[in-house]
Amino acid sequence: MHQKIKKINKHAAVNVHLYGDVLEMTDYKPRKQRIKPLSKDNYVDLATGEVKDYHRNSQRIQSTENLRKTFKNLRRLIIGNFQAGDI
Q1: For residue range 31-76, what is the model confidence (pLDDT) as tens digits?
Q2: What is this structure's pTM?
Q3: Whether the Cβ atoms of residue 36 and residue 51 lie closer than 8 Å to each other
Q4: Which region holds residue 49: left if phi is over 0, alpha if psi is between -120 and 50, else beta?
Q5: Which residues contact 53 (CB under 8 A, 6 or more apart)?
Q6: Contacts of 14 by beta carbon, 8 Å cutoff, 6+ apart
Q7: Between the chain's N and C termini, which has fewer beta carbons within 10 Å?
Q8: CA 51, CA 38: separation in Å to the nearest integer?
Q9: Banded pLDDT at 2 (limits 50, 70, 90)
Q10: ∠ at Cα 83 (70, 23), nearest 5°?
Q11: CA-CA distance, 51 to 36, in Å (whole number)?
Q12: What pLDDT does 60 receive?
């Protein structure tokens, strides 16, 4: 599996992850805060000032973004803690 190597602007902010023999650099775009949590159930939409309820998924698998992040972190943990000769 080969991924395309993208060039990152030398003035761009980046996140760097070093795990095992792998150095991973990703571009980082700071985002302006759009909501402000009030409690575990409510938040304020800063653009409109409305108080809204969080929409919670009953099962974790319903959120593909959360699963993608979980598998990325799991990959980093496995590569960082095991080497090819360990098995």
Answers
A1: 888 999 999 999 999 999 999 998 876 776 677 888 888 899 999 9
A2: 0.54
A3: no
A4: left
A5: 41, 42
A6: 8, 25, 26, 27, 28
A7: N
A8: 9
A9: low
A10: 60
A11: 9
A12: 64
Query: What is the residue type of 59?
Result: Q
Going by pLDDT thresholds of 50, 70 and 90, the confidence category of residue 5 is: confident
Q: Which of 13, 49, 16, 41 is nearest to 29 (CA)?
A: 13
Q: Which residue is it, tokens 């993608």?
A: 68
Alpha-carbon torsion 68, 5, 32, 73, what sign?
positive
As a whole number of angstroms, the distance between CA 32 and CA 19 comes to 29
Whether the Cβ atoms of residue 44 and residue 36 lie closer than 8 Å to each other: yes
Using alpha carbons, select from 22, 15, 25 the residue that is nearest to residue 82: 22
Strand partners, 15: 26
Residue 54 and residue 41 in contact, taking contact as beta carbons nearer than 8 Å: yes
